[in-house]
Write a structure and sequence with these properties.
199 residues, alpha/beta, six-stranded mixed β-sheet, 6 helices
Amino acid sequence: MNDSRAGTARVVLVRHAQPAAIWGSGDDPDPGLDDTGREQAETMARALAPSGPLPILVSPMARTRETAKPLAELWGVEPMTEPAVGELKAPADLGREHVSWLRDVMRSTYSELPAELRAFRDRVVDRIAAVTSDLVVVTHYLAINALVGAATGDDRVVSFAPAHCSRTVVDVARGGLTLIELGASGDARRILLDDSERS
């Protein structure tokens, strides 16, 4: 670690690559990557390779594990599955209304949401705020937004639109988060309004 960063952990937040099924469609509750997603994961691995090897955390979902695989192979490390950086869970009884529910959540602030949804943000932020060494975290759109919001004091559920395999960087020191770099953005309007958006 650079001496100027003594006592600071740098965390690279990677949004998973493009999945093979539309999120919330009910076609597959845990889709892996499609061909484009696999190419994105390979490109991401080559870009991050010089900065490691580092530990890699992944959510339990197939799309994050498959995204991390090329980088883990380059570095010769075994990704650690971490449920705390998983996705926001929708109520079980939503069925095909999943996407509409999510769209409403994404337009909200956390202070407007019920406690069980605020708990999602808290568990993501608490887990990353506890980090003590540099690492890569392959996670999800809303988890990355939760961390950026915590770092910048923004209570919105969505403050930016991280693209698939984008890389957002935060520093962790004394339990606090500092935003270093936002990852590449996708089309925020489409993510909020288009039922076909992949999460």
